[in-house]
């Protein structure tokens, strides 16, 4: 694990038990948007194909599993992976509470290193129908490399679904004037999470480049009309999120 990933692990381990309360409104909005855009994301769901067809999804950097739990009724198997043990525990607790423990399970791992344990090189971690990364791409040290590494786990034709922040997407007081992505700017924008953030978000063009560089086609990108609103250090922040999808060629 790199120093940067370790910083993420530590930060999110501490945040895990309060994360869902803290970001409740944003998570609700993202869950609703995911559901209403489900057929835009993919046409392969349990209610769109033959009943006995397996549809397997990996949610990487899953946290408590908001998107996994949202899509669970339309999938046959879900694996959550996160570097934080406490986030993995939250995911598994949620799956139990929702009666989804038979189809959704999470494990701690770093799949973005050079030495991923061999047990992750076989089913159920390979040959996936779907890969989801929600609100985490901006926490990865090398998003381009991450999409290549994770994308290789999909079947050909498999769908990658990303939710993240639109580049320079602050509204009002907390942002808006600067494209200078130095430490001070990051600090101002992300507060005490600044050291865990590598990118300030992704434009449509940058997502297209990332996907194409990782062997994906059919790229679509949608800016969400409702902002993500959350409170940090007693200040209210508002950011614009996007959804993007692409298919492995
Ligand atoms: C902002 S949270 C998003 C959680 C969840 N996906 C959601 O949409 O609510 C970012 C998550 O990414 C995880 N994370 C950060 N860097 C990671 C990495 N390199 N590999 C795996 N997980 C990582 C953190 O532990 C944390 O759970």
UniProtKB/TrEMBL annotation:
This is Methyltransferase domain-containing protein. The lineage of its organism: Eukaryota, Fungi, Dikarya, Ascomycota, Pezizomycotina. It comes from the Eukaryota.
């Amino acid at each position: 694990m790199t120093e940067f990933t370790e910083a993420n692990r530590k930060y999110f381990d501490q945040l895990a038990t309060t994360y869902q309360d803290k970001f409740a409104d944003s998570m609700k909005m993202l869950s609703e948007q995911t559901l209403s855009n489900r057929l835009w994301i993919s046409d392969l769901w349990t209610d769109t194909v033959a009943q006995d067809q397996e549809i397997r999804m990996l949610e990487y950097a899953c946290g408590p599993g908001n998107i996994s739990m949202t899509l669970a009724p339309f999938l046959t198997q879900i694996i959550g992976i996160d570097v934080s043990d406490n986030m993995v525990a939250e995911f598994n607790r949620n799956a139990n509470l929702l009666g989804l423990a038979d189809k959704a399970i999470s494990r701690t791992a770093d799949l973005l290193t050079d030495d991923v344990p061999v047990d992750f090189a076989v089913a159920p971690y390979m040959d996936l129908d779907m890969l989801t990364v929600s609100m985490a791409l901006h926490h990865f040290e090398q998003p381009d490399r991450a999409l290549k590494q994770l994308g290789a786990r999909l079947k050909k034709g498999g769908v990658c679904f990303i939710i993240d922040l639109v580049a320079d997407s602050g509204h009002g007081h907390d942002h808006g004037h600067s494209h200078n992505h130095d430490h001070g700017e990051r600090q101002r924008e992300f507060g005490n999470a600044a050291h865990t953030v590598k990118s300030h978000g992704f434009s449509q063009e940058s997502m297209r480049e990332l996907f194409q560089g990782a062997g994906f086609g059919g790229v679509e990108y949608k800016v969400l009309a409702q902002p993500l609103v959350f409170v940090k250090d007693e200040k209210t922040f508002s950011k614009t999120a996007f959804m993007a999808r692409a298919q492995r060629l």
